[in-house]
Amino acid sequence: MPFIDARRLDDGLIEADVCIVGAGAAGIAIARELEGSRLKVALVESGGIGFRHRPQFLYRGDNVGLPNFATAKSRLRTFGGSTTRWGGQCRPFDPIDFEARPWMRHSGWPFGREHLGPYYARASTVCHLERYDYETARWFAETNGPMPVSGDALETRIYQFSQSRDFGIAYREQLTRAANVNVYLNANIVEIETDTSGNNVTALRAQTFNGKELRFAARAHVLACGGIENARLLLASNRVEASGVGNRHDLVGRFFADHPYFLPGYLEPAEPRFASSLYVIEDYERAGREQRAHAAFGLSERQQREEQLNGASVYLVRRADYKVRAEYFSTGGRSFNMLVDVLRHRDLPDGRMSMHLRNTLGAAGDIATTIGRQITQQVRPQPRPGLRATIETSPNPDSRVTLGHAKDRFGLPRVRVDWRINRDDQRGLERLLATMRAELPRQGIGRLVEDFTRDAGGWPMSMVGGKHHIGTTRMHVDPKQGVVDPDCRVHGLANLFVAGSSVFPTAGYANPTLTIVALALRLADRLKAA
Hints:
This protein has about 525 residues and is α/β, with parallel strands linked by helices. The chain contains 14 helices and 21 strands.
């Protein structure tokens, strides 16, 4: 059987041509691409089939940066990884996202969008998109709604929804049949072992919860376990080099980025048909089956260049009236929602439960207002097209993942995530909202009803992390500026590669999964050719 429970194996060495750590979007994409090749592949996953709390708690760590971020809840240790709860939104990065922009320090990829184009097309199939097509006019021509908003500054952008989001379900049968791929479940990689020079990986050491110890040795080893865990494994593997594997220039874990999301109000449509147009996501649970794509607002590339702005995007999501109000996103309101989700087993408790309780007790007015609106919503539903905004954050070397003093069940140091955003990154969103504020009424679409409540750092109260962990093993031709080279090989190591969004030099504003899969297919081609 290609699916093997590591807990049932004897201690020992497992050899392969390629060993991939992590069975999420990147790991599964590489494994299925290598299926049927001459290469013997070991795909190693910490979790099993289906979600379990025990491996999930290995993600626990400390958040010492921006609030509304929890390490144990932002990724999933299970076969299929975070695709098992993925919203399915896909869009390629824009050509400008790959450029070295003079106004954005540390920007620039080793290649342009045109290089990644063929891989984006292949990734569209892997991600179960209807087609590789983001032409606005063609998508709007297939709907009965209003035509897209356009202008010198404001433009419309298309996102697609995956029609089969969970890679663990979509590709389990294919990998079960694969003669050259073995999937090892419940195997937790705890160390990258190297030779005495630190230039070659000799094995990946794994442990199981029932005390077994395995070592995976391959000609090529690929870390595909997420932007936080990729960095954690490299930093914690410090027996040969004290700073960790691949960290000779103190770059592993730096440039950590996420996509901050905001819900800054709602649109009051000028006419009913716009409220049910391609611009509105009706329901994430039905997206992909009943809604193939959605449209978003963004600033033109010309505008970004002229005003030296970071990227931003705003789209609309159908939400209950009480979920677009300031009270819902107040400090007390957010803490109350957190406690309710924990009690209903829809979320995991974190180390700040006492803080959430204090916030809740101190915000009785906001919570009472929200509950009153919620009751009203049940009696007289009034859903609104809520604004959902995100920005591209510029690379920040002080935003980083490091190791803490506490250790997990296997003795691996837990992480400290210090997520920071440059204050100037607010400009992209502020300029986009200002343009929408002027253009939407002029074009007969409607008007924005905005919530300007800010936290102590000047960010909208509704800000949350998008759970898109980016940049901690960034790609660059120069080992003094990046952890991996343009082939995603760790600088200074002959047989260690990294897959996933941790290699992105910049974050863009679009959801990262399509780009993750495109880069994974590109890496798979190089592994096959080696």
